[in-house]
Write a structure and sequence with these properties.
alpha/beta, TIM Barrel, eight-stranded parallel barrel, about 15% strand, binds 2-phosphoglycolic acid
């Protein structure tokens, strides 16, 4: 069943004590009458502790922001999917544009990471998104299709219950410029249509597709009301409990 999901991608932010306060504040004020899933994506170091804090909240999950494409071994500084699983993680964000850009992760690398995540009984939040120049020259739909084709379309339909897609136009991330709800809906509708083409209507209808890129308490409602937008991947606005809660409450 398609779920509404709001993910807080903290990136490389928050000291440990501030992170724990933020989680406590959000947990204590979560709406009781809604079934939106809430996901915290802290740095690896806080994952286990935060997973423990969220243990009694069935609708609250934790996510890593990345993992290695390798299983284990001599890869100093890397963190494996198995380590995330055994630290009580639920999800891993794969293919965030910052990972693609600053760490040169290719679609082929991401496909390997996706396999590792699923093999370790975790779920994937798979990110895709175009640059402004691609939108301006009209290649954005093909670009997104290629990112999905090369990153996740090698999977079986059974795997898709463990895949969440996040559409994050790069020009909207951290810039304060949000895609209009029409632009976002148009791309989400397109993504659902290619899921339908590749895997059929059941999977297309049951997949959650999140929007990310300067989503905030002022625009979340307008975005979430769109028929193919099932929630958000929230960066900056997930770092303050009031803002994050306001976004959670936008459904
Ligand atoms: P932003 O980041 O909300 O700060 O734009 C979103 C993301 O990068 O996931």
């Amino acid at each position: 069943m398609r779920k509404n999901i709001v993910v807080g991608n903290w990136k490389m932010n928050l000291k440990r004590e501030d992170a724990l306060v933020l989680v406590s504040e959000v947990l204590s004020q979560l709406p009781k009458d809604k079934d939106t899933e809430v996901v915290f994506a802290p740095c690896f170091l806080y994952l286990y502790k935060i997973a423990k804090m969220c243990n009694d909240f069935e609708r609250v999950k934790v996510s890593a922001q990345n993992c290695s494409k390798e299983g284990k071994g001599a890869f100093t500084g890397e963190v494996s999917a198995e380590m995330v699983t055994t630290s009580n993680g639920d999800y891993v964000i794969i293919g965030h544009s910052e990972r693609r850009e600053y760490f040169k992760e290719t679609n082929a690398d991401l496909a390997e990471k996706v396999n590792k995540v699923l093999a370790n009984n975790l779920k994937v939040i798979f990110c895709c998104g175009e640059r402004l120049t691609q939108r301006e020259n009209g290649t954005h739909f093909n670009w997104i299709k290629q990112q999905l084709s090369e990153g996740i379309f090698h999977l079986d339909s059974n795997d898709f219950t463990n895949i969440v897609i996040a559409y994050e136009p790069i020009w909207a991330i951290g810039t304060g410029i949000t895609a209009t709800s029409e632009q976002a809906q148009e791309m989400h509708g397109f993504i659902r249509s290619i899921l339908n083409e590749k895997y059929g209507s059941k999977i297309a209808e049951n997949s959650s597709i999140l929007y990310g890129g300067s989503c905030n308490p002022g625009n979340a409602k307008e975005l979430f009301i769109q028929k193919d937008i099932d929630g958000g991947l929230i960066g900056g606005a997930s770092l303050k409990s009031d803002d994050f809660l306001a976004i959670i409450n936008s459904f």
